Amino acid sequence: MKMYILIKDDVPTKMAPVIAAHASLACYKKYKDDPDMIEWVNSIFKKVVCKVDEKEFQNSLKDGKYVLLTESSLDNREVAVAFVPRVEFTKQFRFFKMWAPD
To answer: 3-class DSSP state for residue 4?
Structure first.
């Protein structure tokens, strides 16, 4: 099982680590009683952080069971989404680029 955290590609690099940390915590808090979250917390606790463009970001929201993050210092715009951990994600997740500093 793994949690996917998707960060928009136009988010400043220096903000990404904190946004990813907030995303995982916000997702846990929202779904702490979800059976998949409980299993994940009690197992390997794997997370995958990816950099996505706007189209990929919007398409990913079709997968459900997620939490959206906004950033006040960026005019409260959406900057990331974290998905409840699960064994299988839709095929699109396999093609997202791993986040790495520029």
So the answer is: strand
Go through 24-56 and write b for each residue having 16 or more CB atoms within 10 A of its CB, e for each that does not.
bebbbeebeebebbeebeeeeeebbbbbbeeeb
The CATH number for 2-96, chosen from 3.40.50.960, 3.40.1490.10, 3.20.20.370, 3.40.50.10300, is 3.40.1490.10
Please write the tens of the pLDDT for every residue from 26-50: 999 999 999 999 999 999 889 999 9
Q: What is the pLDDT of residue 45?
A: 86
**Is this structure's pTM higher than 0.85?**
yes
Residue type, 4: Y
